[in-house]
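User: structure tokens for this one?
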Amino acid sequence: MTRKPYKLNCWPWHISGKATTQELAKKSALRWLYNFQMFVLRALLATLLLAQFVAAQEHVSFPTEDGGVVYADIYGKGERGLVLAHGGRFNKESWEKQARTLASAGFRVLAFDFRGYGKSRGPGDSAPMSAPLHLDVLAAVRYLRKTGAKTVSVVGGSMGGGAAGDASIASQPGEIDRVVFLGAYPNGPAEKLKCPSLFIVARDDASEDGPRLPRIQEQYQKVPEPKTLIILDGSAHAQFLVKHSAWMNEGYVGDWPESW
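Assistant:
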């Protein structure tokens, strides 16, 4: 299909027929004014969008019960709290895209650095993998509770998932409403988990010790109901499960995690 040339007879500077010098000058002035107005409008919109983007994030810190200090970023507002606990290869900034997506869906999201990462510190921070990381998770959960959250769920990737599970085991009844394990399971006794849980793992996810799926399935069987296990195709591990999957980034966000 051939498009006909578009006639600019809707613009304020259009002048039909033979134009005089005065009319051409007027046309040029109107065009300049219109372009200038559009430039100002675009600049104002960009400034407003940038201000909204920057204001959406709040930097906070809070103590842990063993004398540590946790640094975190908060996204969004509301009474539904969500803690994001990173894996060993990540940090709090690695959650930014997912945090903003979840904040836009109505969650107040807290992404934090474990002790030994960023500025967070506490006993054992020189060897985080063996440190009491569950205390960092509990501190984050309690911070959201103290600042207005009515419910608090925790999403943990790999190392963060183990810490999230241990936090649930050590928590007071009702402190943690739900836990999501991304390629992970509790380090402590799985049967002592105190809240509903969602396990997500890639079928071919493996470590130096071999495939992770069998061990995760074994621990999943010990976890109390209600619980859900989702096995995805591929080999993604920890936060890569959400970076490359639509379940968290797109269609599931509206109901997640309230609909487990």
